[in-house]
Amino acid sequence: MPIFVKLFSELRVRVVQVSWAFLFAIFLVHMLSSWALVALAGEASIADADVWVYFYIVTATTVGYGDFPRKRSPGAG
């Protein structure tokens, strides 16, 4: 068990040392690489910048698009 405590404390130290600039760089790399993959896949309808930002935010935050509504009321097994 002491190995897990040591690993956890080391992880906590590393997480505290992460800078906002690093997190922003990771965010930009993720966003741009996702956009590039969509463009390479031939999805021209969502490759525009304004549409892409909408789809990126909704997908990355897992909010959902709302196009599959519930068919049954909650608890109606």
From TrEMBL:
Highest taxon of source: Bacteria
Q: Which keywords accompany this UniProt record?
A: Membrane, Transmembrane, Transmembrane helix
Keyword Transmembrane helix in the entry? The reply is yes
Task: Please list every transmembrane segment annotated in the UniProt record, as residue ranges.
Answer: 20-39, 51-68
Q: What is this protein called?
A: Uncharacterized protein
